[in-house]
Amino acid sequence: MTDTLTITVIEPEELAPVGRLGEWLFAEGASLRMVRPWRGEPIPSLDEIGDGLVVLGGSMSAHDEGEHPWLADLRELLRGVVADDVPAIAICLGAQVAAEALGGSTAVPALGNDEVGVVELTITAAGESDPVFGAVAAEAIRAAHRAGISTSDGTRLPVIVSHHDAVTHLPEAATLLASSDRSPVHTWRAGRLLAFQHHPESDPARVAYWRTRDALNDLAGSMDAASLQAARDALEVAAGRSAAPGAAGT
User: Are residues 154 and 228 in the same domain?
Assistant: First the structure.
């Protein structure tokens, strides 16, 4: 019998849950330790995370340290993860914080690089040969093609996205694995850390939430404040209900 792997998952925001990624890790027999900064839970030290780390997304930016001081601790943890060769996944905000922690840069906002919905990624030669991402991307492209989802004749990977900020310069030690038409730095690796601008943990219900949220934001100037807030509150309640089944750990 093998020992159970313990994976620490940092969830910056209540409505950005671990989702399908948690289901996949559970299916592989992993135990998840959830850390929720939005509840005031501190970022763990490197020797507390166990066998691996996942950093999820959130609506704050990588530059919002004044309002979210735990971002400084997260940068330090991500530097340690790469230096100590610990397996890690960083998603959206997590990828942006990781880039800055390792010497890259993130634009806030990234005008012209923002994306919402589904986009197709072009896999680089390094991405195709990557021991983890290459195989997963190839199988995902085949599965999407079988399902009738556009893959540009099996050459591009369709992914779920929602971001207004973006990594604009990779850390010197990082390798680019995939790009989209609007966001050149999408998937990359530094050591054993894989960084994704897209959301592999999300599903169509989450995309619908993002689209509705952005539509409400666009209506801010044409709705009275009370009606707009009521619509936002109803959306957040509905999103919280849909997120609940994907939550994992304590």
Answer: no
